[in-house]
UniProtKB/TrEMBL annotation:
Residues 5-201 form the Tr-type G domain. GO terms for molecular function: GTP binding; GTPase activity; ribosome binding; translation elongation factor activity. The keyword Mitochondrion does not apply. It is a peripheral membrane protein. Keywords: Cell membrane, Elongation factor, GTP-binding, Hydrolase, Membrane, Nucleotide-binding, Protein biosynthesis. GTP binds at residues 148-151. Required for accurate and efficient protein synthesis under certain stress conditions. May act as a fidelity factor of the translation reaction, by catalyzing a one-codon backward translocation of tRNAs on improperly translocated ribosomes. Back-translocation proceeds from a post-translocation (POST) complex to a pre-translocation (PRE) complex, thus giving elongation factor G a second chance to translocate the tRNAs correctly. Binds to ribosomes in a GTP-dependent manner. It comes from candidate division WWE3 bacterium RIFCSPHIGHO2_02_FULL_38_14. SUPFAM superfamilies: EF-G C-terminal domain-like, P-loop containing nucleoside triphosphate hydrolases, Translation proteins. It is found in: Cell membrane. Its EC number is 3.6.5.n1. One of its GO terms (cellular component) is plasma membrane. This is Elongation factor 4. GO terms for biological process: positive regulation of translation.
């Protein structure tokens, strides 16, 4: 029997490491969705990388069933009028916590009626706590605030509760206390989910035109493109499998439908309010886009569901195989990865220095790291990648405008009229003692402060505008350093602004090494060039001849370093002691041997690129 009133679609939102995945484990256990014996820790983080890094990268959904115990009564009811016990269908949509994947949070929320807000009670409110609450409020969700990790000695229950009330207007007595680790309070949370979160609305009438919202897509080798959906109106049934996609206008015949348990389980149909999947029958993941509406192929004048937002890559990295013959393998690997990750974009690129590779677009730095790591690990490729860049807009003197995602896209200085760079709106939350450090850091990174608030005396909240290029240069690491790891942040694209920048080239033995080119602020070019050459000098092994390193803008050389001709033993001139440095040098030399790229006459080890490109 389908009873829409017994469905609850909810998500868990939290800052990274607040304990979302661990809480999900307990929920899976209590509802007997997964046998305790089969429950690995952080079950929903099923990718190796996710488990290793302890982060959720890809959202996942799981359906649980839960019967409210008989004893549940309303206050005014006597024991003779016990509430009838029903089995509820609870659809949990897990969301990733890292800022790079914040877009995935919005999509999951669009398919829910409520959200469990998990706050780590040893950390208090963090940046993504704030941004996720606003996302949930935007999506009109009922929010259940939860303090997690109450088992820990450092739990600041009173302080965090008060902060939550002041910041978001929660009532003190609606805030639950749980320990995802011990399971304390989790059953009560489940009851709250059922009582507080509304059942999905939507037209279940026999004549209702079926509409479903796609909140995720992935590729399956056998089924092709699978769309994770929430059925908003009507029913999707195998008896009537001709469907169309309103935004992309794709038409297909679906082959299978069902639910996530969290494995896929086939069903004949999905009804109003239910969350599950449709194996679309499509082969191209771009034809079934997240946020798009699925309806029946023959339905007329169907109103698309709100919630669609196109994802745009924020940062760009060019990736080349060290061994040029591996280009086809790299292409195949990227194609495979992009089948399941529609936010990954790539286009072929060739460089005189590095041969054939791909210019890839990512949602953020973590996304870029993860993809590169997966390429190397899962596809056994050895790669060289350029420094992450942002997309500049360039007005040329001939009146045309181009976009440049890498230094190599930049035209000659004489052809440039004006350059614009992307800016972001950045929210930073930190304990108040770090105010000074954070302001100094943001100043150095060209930040413009828009707002500074103290929601409580211990916590400061900043709103900054900052060039995205600054963020890309290790801003997050620096922020962590100046705040002893306590500051957290969240950002969103805000617009383009003019910048006076130049392309700084690096010449090795007279030849421009394109992947080492950087776009830098004009008045910082010289300092930057010097620093860069110093680093390079340390990591490029000596050759049989002296090698000149130069940093230049246009034809003008701004800095120079020389690498003297080879000695037999790299350690010969190192005066004793410094074991670590020696080891490091030997290590670099060793790695260099394995992975060397011959550029013109000079061998440059992969490690040199890594060192310089992670500058
Ligand atoms: P992301 O997936 O990166 O967003 O993290 P998450 O929010 O899913 O956090 P996760 O569940 O991975 O937990 C982070 C760490 O906190 C893990 O080491 C957990 O074991 C620990 N943890 C989670 N909940 C509790 C709790 O209630 N008590 C204690 N003591 N530790 C907890």
């Amino acid at each position: 029997m389908h009873n829409q009133d017994l469905i609850r679609n909810y998500s868990i939102i939290a800052h990274v490491d607040a304990g979302k995945s661990t809480l999900a484990d307990r929920l899976l256990e209590i509802t007997h969705t997964i046998d305790k014996r089969h429950l690995k820790e952080q079950f929903l983080d099923s990718m190796d990388l996710e488990r290793e890094k302890g982060i959720t990268i890809k959202l996942k959904s799981v359906r649980m069933y839960y019967k409210l115990p008989h004893t549940t009564t309303h206050q005014h009811q006597t024991t003779e009028h016990k509430e009838e016990s029903h089995t509820y269908q609870l659809n949990l949509i897990d969301t990733p916590g890292h800022v790079d994947f914040s877009y995935e949070v919005s999509r999951s929320l669009a398919a829910c009626e409520g959200a469990v807000l998990v706050v780590d009670v040893t950390q208090g409110i963090q940046a993504q706590t704030v941004s996720n609450v606003y996302k949930a409020l935007d999506a009109n969700l009922k929010i259940i605030p939860v303090l997690n990790k109450v088992d820990l000695p450092g739990a600041e229950i009173e302080k965090t509760s008060e902060d939550l009330c002041r910041t978001f207007g929660f009532y003190r007595d609606e805030i639950l206390q749980v320990s995802a680790k011990t399971g304390e309070g989790v059953e009560e949370l489940l009851h709250k989910v059922i009582k507080k979160i509304p059942a999905p609305e939507g037209n279940a009438g026999l004549t209702a035109i079926p509409r479903a919202l796609i909140y995720d897509t992935f590729y399956d080798d056998f089924l092709g493109v699978v769309a994770a959906i929430k059925v908003v109106d009507g029913t999707f049934s195998l008896q009537n499998p001709q469907i169309k996609f309103l935004a992309t206008k794709a038409v297909s015949t679906f082959q299978e439908t069902g639910i996530f348990t969290p494995k896929r389980k086939k069903l004949d149909r999905l009804m109003t309010g239910e969350v599950g999947y449709i194996a679309t029958g499509l082969k191209d993941i771009h034809a079934a886009r997240v946020g798009d509406t699925i309806t029946l192929a023959d339905a007329q004048n169907v109103e698309p569901l709100p919630g669609y937002k196109e994802v745009k890559p924020f940062v760009f990295v060019s990736i080349f195989p060290i061994d040029n013959d591996k280009f086809p393998e790299l292409r195949e690997a990227l194609e495979k990865l992009s089948l399941s990750d529609s936010s990954l974009s790539f286009e072929p690129e060739s460089s005189t220095a590095l041969g054939f590779g791909f210019r890839c677009g990512f949602l953020g730095l973590l996304h870029a790291d993860i993809i590169q790591e997966r390429l190397e690990r899962e596809y056994d490729l050895e790669l060289i990648s350029t420094i992450p860049t942002v997309e500049y807009k360039i007005d040329k003197t001939d009146g045309t405008m181009i976009s440049a995602k890498a230094a190599s896209d930049f035209p000659a200085t004489t052809q440039i009229k004006e350059i614009q760079e992307p800016w972001i709106k950045l929210n930073i939350v930190a304990p108040s003692e770090y105010v000074g450090n954070i302001i100094t850091l943001c100043d150095r990174r060209r930040g413009v402060m828009l707002k500074m608030d103290y929601p409580t005396e211990n916590r400061v909240v900043f709103e900054y505008e900052l060039p995205l290029a600054e963020l890309v240069y290790n801003f997050f690491d620096d922020l962590k350093t100046v705040s002893s790891g306590f500051a957290s942040m969240d950002y969103d694209f805000s617009g383009y602004k003019k910048v006076i920048a130049v392309k700084l080239n690096v010449l090795v033995h007279g030849e421009v090494v394109e992947p080492l080119s950087h776009i830098v602020l004009k008045d910082k070019a010289e300092d930057f060039g010097r620093e860069l050459l110093k680093k390079l000098k340390d990591v490029i092994p000596r050759q049989q001849f002296q090698v000149a390193l130069q940093a230049a803008v246009g034809g003008k050389v701004l800095a120079r370093e020389d690498i003297p001709a080879m000695r037999k033993n790299v350690l010969a001139k190192m005066s004793g002691g410094h074991r670590e440095r020696k080891d490091k040098l030997l290590d670099i030399q060793k790695k260099g041997k394995q992975r060397m790229k011959r550029l013109g006459k000079v061998d440059i080890p992969q490690e040199a690129f890594r060192q310089v490109l992670s500058a």
